Every structure is written in structure tokens, then in C-alpha cells.
Amino acid sequence: MTGVRSGGADVFLSYASPDSAIADAACAALERQGVTCWIAPRDVVPGEFYADAIVRAVDAAKVLVLVLSQHAAASPHVVREIERATSKRHPVVTLRTDLVAMPPALEYFLNASHWLDASASGVAASLPKLIEAVARLVAPGGGPAPPPGGATGNAPGPAPAIPAAGAGTKSIAVLPFANMSADPDQEYFSDGLAEEIINLLAHIPGLKVIARTSAFAFRGKEQDIRGIASALGVTHVLEGSVRRAGNRLRITGQLIQAADGTHLWSERYDRELSDIFAVQDEISSAIVGALRVQFSDEILRQRYVPNLAAYELFLKARYLAAKVTPEALELARRSFEQAIELDGGFALPHVGLGSYWLSVMIFGRVPAHDAIAAVRAHARRALQINPSLPEAHALLGLAAAMFDLDWAAAERHFDAPMARQASFATLSPMYGGFQFMRGNADQAVALARRGIEQDPLDVWPRMNLHAYLQAAGRESEALEQLKKVLELDEHQVVALVSMAMIYADRGELAEALVTARRAHAVAPWYPDAAAMLAALMHRNGQEAESQELAKTLGTGDAFGDAHVRALFHLARGDVEQGADWAEKAVEARDLSIMFYLRYVVSRELRASHRWPKIATMLNLPG
Predict the structure, then answer these.
(1) Which of 161, 383, 421 is nearest to 265 (CA)?
(2) What distance in Å separates the CA atoms of residue 326 and residue 622, rounded to the nearest whole number?
(3) Across the strands, what pairs with 14?
(4) How does pLDDT run across 181-194, given as a tens digit for each residue?
């Protein structure tokens, strides 16, 4: 190789010494194309102070090429070289050779870098792209990259110019933004920012946006972006980070094209906390520009800007509610209530409280009569504040379907714009659950499949699909979905109980018993698992064991007992007693019975003389 001894080189190569072979290969490839390079130690003049030589070479170069690896990420001199280059507004091209987790200092300077990912394809395969990227930057008129600081200050700056993706790329996953703050408890804030961007992008017609649960499944996992994109079925991935110090924020975002790891857009925002809504809008607008999709800024103009303290409480509540545990739900409820106290004009915490009451009802912790009143009160209050909130309309639609069994009233609520797309923790979308309850199983199946496309790694869209397939009489397909659920979560007890039902209906009693025992072992506190196991023990001639376990199923007086007793008798084959308990569960508006009555466990009941009355109670054709 021929070094650069005087004047400025086109490229300064920055690397850690263990990566010298890669740096030498990159240097040789560039120089074969006529690009001059400065690389240490080759180009350090004998007798010259090493640090001075580095500084002068960085200052004089047009572009800095970084070989990014775990060694470079740990190297102080690499960080200093990058800091020097960005202070001089030199563009940085990063050749990433492994799935390194960047330290904050390096991340700060590289957020506006042009990235090439060689971690999967190998360095040799990435060199042509490196040559192409550098050639563009060193060519006359190529110009410097934008400064790494991006838009700074308190006022929002114009969205940076970004290259556009191909016309056919209309899918994206927004990964959880890394919490770079000193306080790990600030994760709710970084998660909240990512979720707000997901919600904004979800309003764009024709853009497939992966839902929170699946996108956040990759938190903390060292996985290549292409692998994540492939698992989620998207062409683009947005990742970022949030650092918070008091009321100051540093937010970075990078939009990556999954096919080749190219960064289509990256930016850093140094702002005050009060600018958080402007940053969300700017990031969303930048993504829209990169993906060439149509987006009406009316959505941004209509957004309510709440009191900041109330907004933080809302983000914390939503973060807690996603955990779904009883303790987390109670903490979420308190945060939603505190947010409302601080800002009475903020509608979304009312939606959150409506969802909370729906959750505790579904999990059998509060009787439906009490919970539905609270669901309606909060949804109606949310609509008084903001009549266009789709989630509030969907909650009222679901309440009309689940409690009143009034299909026409439910349909009117779901006719509101975007209400049919709104999802709840265990129903994705809620409109699919409504169609299932009113007896339109095939339509519910189609909606559930769309839910899986948007949230492929969440178990509940697949649980929904399995339920709707059972209602459609497609038990074999339902069983396949249950198997996929257990691949995602081997301890999903609701799936195991349903699987035991299907095996029993097929006459595969031994397999049904094994599955029911597994369900009870996983969740001995779950009465439905105990009911299913006790019933199958009875059918297997284990009467003493069955009766002993049946004693744990409740007296029938508490909310939820009726559906458990109905399941126990129906799985035993005792249609009359099963029907008696099913009627009590329907009267109590116990949601579980709405599902069980459409499952294979109720096949004999639906063929019996008792069904017409129950069908009338459910407002279904007899």
C-alpha cells in the first residue's frame, strides 16, 4: 500500500488494533479505486508525535471510516478520533463487524453516521458498499454530513433531508428505545416514546406497523437487525435511545433498511422535556418521508398536548399495565387516576382506566356488572373530552357486545373511524372479539389473522385465532395455533386447557390427560385447569382423585365460579348440570363462558334440548 505523507487524504481509517487486518483490507480496497487513505501506523512520519499525527490526519481527511467492533467500542482512542471528526463536521462511515453494544460516548457521536452492517454478510461482501458510500462523499459536491447534534435548542428544527426507500417498502417495526439514563426506572419513559411513535405511524393507511408486544420482544437481545426484521415480517426497523437528566433529553433515532443494514435516516435531538411531543412528530414525519407513504398532518394537529407531569404518569401507567400482573395493574390504575387529577382535559388516562376495569373483569377479579359500569363511565368521559378517540369507541362497543349482547349498539361504536383496528391486551383487535361473540366466526378468523400480522410474537392474537377457529368448527387448525402459542410461551396455561379439550373431543384421552396435568402443574391457582383435569380424571376412571380436585373449584357463589363449574360438568359429559351452570355464568356475564360455549367442550350441549334457551340468552340464532 502507498501511504499519504503530506496533504490531506480522502479517508481517515479509525480502528482498534485487534481489527488491523480488517482495516488494512478496507484501506487496500479503497486505494485500488483511487481513494487516498490515511491509516496508522503506516502513515505516521517517523519521529512525529503520534497523537499530533492523528489529529492532523483527522482534520485533513474528507471522510472518517470506522471499523466498529467490540474492540473499537472499548477503545478510548477510537472514541477520541470519532469525536474529533464529528467536531470538524466530517462524515463518518461505520463498517460494523459484530453485534456490538455501543457505550454511550460512542453512540452519541455515531447517531448521524452512515452505517454498513458486515456482521452477517462478512467484511469482504461489504467492501463494495463501503467503496460506493465513500466515493459519494469524497466526490466534488458530495459535501459534509449534517452535524451530529442535529436539531438542538428548544424550538423544533426542520426535518433533516433523508433518502427515500423503494415504493414497495411499507412495513416497519419500532423497537423499544434504549434507556441510557442513569436511573434504570426511567425505562417507562423510553418505552413510552417508542410506543407513541408506533401509535402515530399506525394511523398511516397502507403502512404495516408491528404492535408493541412483538416489537418489544427483542429488548436486550443481541440479534442482527435482519433477523429481527425477518421474524417480524418487516422491511424497515426503527431503533433509538433516550437519555434523560432532569428536564433535559437526548433522543437518538435510526431508521434501518433491513435488506442490507443501510441507515436511511438518523438524527439526534437535544431538547427540553417540554419538547417531547415535537420530537415524536419530527421522528414520525422523517420516517414517513423515508418510506414514501402518505400521511395527513391533521393527526398531529389534533393531538392534545397534556400537562407534562400528567403525561409522565400516563406513560408509567401504560408501561405497568402491559405487564398484566395483578400488582402491576393496581399500580397502573393509581397512575392513571393521578394523571387525570393533574390534567382533566387529558382523555387517554380515562381510556387506560376503562381498559383496567375490563382487564380485572376478564381475569375474574371483579364482577362484570360492577366492572362494565366503570368501563363505560371512563370511555364516555374520554369521548366527552375527545369525541374521536377510537379506543374509547371500541371499549363501548365491546361493553355493548359482552354485557348487553346488543350487536347493533356495538356495531355503531365500531363504525367510528379506526375503532375496528383498536386492540386491548387480550383481544387484537377488539372488533374481532365482537364478531366472535355475535356468531360471525369466519369474519373473526380473518380479523385475527390480520392481528397476527401486526403482532406475530404475541400469544394473544394466536389465542384469539384458535378460539375463532374452534367456533368455526375448524378444530385441527385451532390445535395448530395452540401449538404455535406454546412455542412462544410453553407455560401458557389457557392454551394448555384448550388443547386438552380438543384432544379429549378427538377421543385421545391419554394425550388430553397429559396436557391437563401439565396445565395444572404450570398454574395450580388457575381454576379452569383444575376443572379440566378433574373432569378428565373422572372420564379415566380416577373418581377419587377427580372428586378431591373438584373440591377446589369453589362453591359457585363467587364471580367466576359458574363458568368453572360449567366447564367441569361439560368436560365430564354431564350436559344437564353443565347447562345449569352455563346459564348462571351467562346471567353473570362471565366472559369465559362466552368462549367455552363455542368450543368443542360444549359440542354435546349445542346439540341438546338445552341449547335454544342458552342461544336466546346469548342473543344468537337458536
Answers:
(1) 161
(2) 38
(3) 66
(4) 888 889 999 999 99
